[in-house]
């Protein structure tokens, strides 16, 4: 029987396994994960789960029965240490597992804070795994001073959760504005105001010289000479794709395990999906770190493993929850050169429309599900409104559908 081995029992790995079965594949499927928990959702780790408001059961993507019913061999607490392409087998601590096709779904890990700037201190927290959330959650106690390094989505979500727990929160962002890497200034402005209104101190263009403390973090020295006190720190300065297994066997890695539109790596019969890979998108090669991408790309790769030749055409979308604001993003704004803010009913909502010249690329919708849905449908249909139309508050984009 044909044997498909999936390394990484996360969102993308599970998506591949599920789709293989849906397509009627009746060979062997092994899903191998180094974590103890069966595949689970990560988004709640910086939201409800961090607050202790979501049970482990509800964090799981599928109940354990599912794997038995679907005949998916789930190996947990099992780390793949190496791949042998010639022998077509993977090495675990205590066994070798042969494969016909191999799927790398190893995800990403938080970019570590270097030791020379205090990365080795106690009292620092990262947020990628369930265990990380279980460690951080109990530390979020009222009155403590939390320093968050990095004003990206994870940092800002943790800031919101920590405020609701009564901590004093400072977000330190090295760039000149929060969310700089992922959003336009208008979206950054919206979230800066939102956090300020909730009492979070946001410091932008604020370079960290080093975290200070005698064993345990007690503060931070900034490059400009300012000093901040801190009882604990959360590090949210981006992630690194987990490419080591691929690199060790000479598979092409460029900002992630490089795959083609079908999800194949540079090695025959070896595929990569989710956060660990970099994929072609509109002439560029990008990483998409999101649940929808893990699911959609995973499903396509399952087709291709079974010889059904399908290109993956990403339809990116994403969300983030902060306080009572739900941000929904349709599309990908890379390459934008102008934006329009569409007025909304109140100052708790707005939408930001990104264009490259006259082509709509994406929309950030803050408490604006209608704009989000509209944008998704426009992008799906490739029915771009003109910039002037969107800039006209009287214009209703729904008329284009
Ligand atoms: P992962 O889910 O990380 O799974 C990879 C798995 O592989 C891990 O369990 C890892 O331990 C395992 N693994 C790696 N190497 C090995 C090995 N050698 N042997 C065995 N196992 C191995 N996305 C959104 O769309 N919306 C959100 O709101 C959102 N919020 C997020 C909040 C947080 C705190 C985090 C961390 C992520 C969030 N994301 C969000 C991103 C989303 O969770 C990821 O894009 C998604 O999980 C990627 O799936 P993946 O399968 O590629 O990687």
Walkthrough of the structure:
The protein is an alpha/beta fold and 401 residues long. 23% of the residues lie in helices and 27% in strands. The chain has a five-stranded parallel sheet with strand order 3-2-1-7-19. The protein is globular, with a radius of gyration of 22 Å. The N and C termini lie far apart (48 Å). The site of flavin-adenine dinucleotide has 36 residues, from helix 1, helix 8 and strand 22. Flavin-adenine dinucleotide binds next to helix 1, helix 8 and strand 22.
State the gist of this model.
This protein is of the alpha/beta class and 401 residues long. The protein contains 10 helices and 26 strands.
Broad shape: globular
Mean pLDDT: 96
Quaternary status = single chain
Biggest sheet character: 5 strands, parallel
Low-confidence stretches: none
Using the CA coordinates, give the radius of gyration: 22 Å
Tell me what portion of residues adopts beta-strand conformation: 25-35%
Present as ligands are:
flavin-adenine dinucleotide
Distance between the termini: 48 Å
As a percent range, the share of helical residues equals: 10-25%
Number of strands: 26
Strand arrangement within the widest β-sheet reads: 3-2-1-7-19
Counted by DSSP, the helix tally is 10
Secondary-structure content class: alpha/beta
